[in-house]
Amino acid sequence: MSVGIVLVSHSAKLAEGLAELAAQMAPDVTIVAAGGLSEGGIGTDYDEVVAATQRADSGAGVVLLYDLGSAQMTADLAVESLADPSAAVVVDAPLVEGAIAAAVAAQGGADRQAVAGAAASAGAPPDLTFDSGVQDGESSVELTLRNDVGLHARPAAVLVRSIAGLDAEVTVRLGEETADANSVLALMALGARQGDRIEVRAKGAQAEEALTKVKDLVDQNFGE
Amino acid sequence: MACTAETLAAALRAAAAVIAEHRTELIDLDRAIGDADHGENMDRGFTAIVSALDTATPETPAAVVKLAATTLISKVGGAAGPLYGTAFLRASVKLGDAAEVDGPLLVEALRAALEGVQARGKAVGGDATMVDALIPAVSAAEEASGDDIAAILTAAADAAEKGAESTVDLVPRKGRASYLGERAKGHLDPGARSTALLLRAFAEAAK
Predict the structure, then answer these.
(1) Strand (E) or helix (H) holding A178
(2) Which residues are in the PTS EIIA type-4 domain (chain A) (predicted)?
């Protein structure tokens, strides 16, 4: 049971296309597109947004994202009209990046607040830190990326999912920059490509397990 | 004079006629600064209200207003749907289970409608939106007070018309018009205009 996601857009194509993209990175999350008017055309349809929100809720709550202007109002109004308005939250986030970040967080089992937080923080520049070397208590492994697209969207999402739920703080370094391995957007911002050598560092009770999982993924070319 | 579910339904039918009559005017106002759909959308919403009233007979004033709210939310696109929908919905909640609406209750409902629109749209006075018609309208209604519904609504409509006119000199800060910045100056806001039209229609119906 994961948090559901509703994409409210003025365009049916935009909502559907984004749902398709996000679903590729979060196959078990219910992502419902609520775009366009019921009779076709550009606009937001209140009844459809309400129905989408109900459909997306498997009991863990729903996060709604929107594109422009009145889509936010329609989403807010739909949430207000629910039997339990606290089950859903409308989040102010860039639609595409927010949907991806929210979907991956939901796939990893994050709760509604954390999924909304992942979406909201997608608007900020990806959080990369300067490489400060391996710290005390950290284990690390160096890996060479052999898959075609490197740490692009889908592989990055697969990596985040593989370590979700483990008791370990994991980071990925490329060159002088280090990314939090829980953030799909930060991993993508590293820009690691085929042939690049990355270093994965982990600390915590399940650090070794996390490193093994990431190493296996890289060895298997992320299932590509 | 207090108004009942029947007189409220009649007022909504009158409002629908006024919106239909001004459909083209609202489209033209919106074309200058928006996407030219406000007249079309409002006409579709109020036509749907009339159809809904033809098939249902809500028993309380609150039920009539709530029916208008849900119809507007579903049928009117753009920002106007959720905004007018919220206005009618909040007014309906304020009317509660009263069998008749007297002056003081009407004023409270108007205040609730304004607060709903502001909460939903996050607009304040001077943003060149329907709020610029609603704020002075509610203030005028509060000053008129008393029990004469027609007098209260006439004062509100007069103030709403002046408020709507004031948007001509404003630079829009909300909605699609705000994308135009200074270029949107010199235009009457379509939402403020439709608010003034509705209040005038209600005032005439109450006479």
Answers:
(1) strand A177-180
(2) 2-141
For chain B, the domain total comes to: 1
Tokens standing for residue A97: 């990046």
Task: Select from B103, B107, B169 the least CA-distant residue to B132.
Answer: B169
Span A81-116, pLDDT tens digits: 898 999 999 999 999 999 999 999 999 999 999 999
Q: Does A149 touch chain B (CB under 8 A)?
A: no
Using an 8 Å CB-CB cutoff, list chain B residues near A44: 77
A44 touches chain B (CB under 8 A): yes
Q: Would you say A18 and A106 are in contact if contact means Cβ atoms under 8 Å apart? A: no
Our CA angle for A156, A110, A68, nearest 5°, is 75
Q: What is the rounded CA–CA span in Å between residue A166 and residue B124?
A: 48
Range of the domain at B190: 3-206
Cβ-contact B53, B70 below 8 angstroms: no
Give the Cα separation of B183 and B177 in Å (integer): 9
**Structural domains in chain A?**
4-121 (3.40.50.510), 128-223 (3.30.1340.10)
Q: Is the ipTM of this complex over 0.85?
A: no
The answer to whether B120 contacts chain A (CB < 8 Å) is yes
Q: Give the bridge partners for A32, in sequence order.
A: A6
**Do β-strands A139-144 and A31-35 pair in parallel, antiparallel, or remain unpaired?**
unpaired
Q: pLDDT digits over B63-109, tens only?
A: 999 999 999 998 887 889 999 999 999 999 999 999 999 999 999 99
- The amino acid that residue B52 corresponds to is A
A152 is catalytic: no
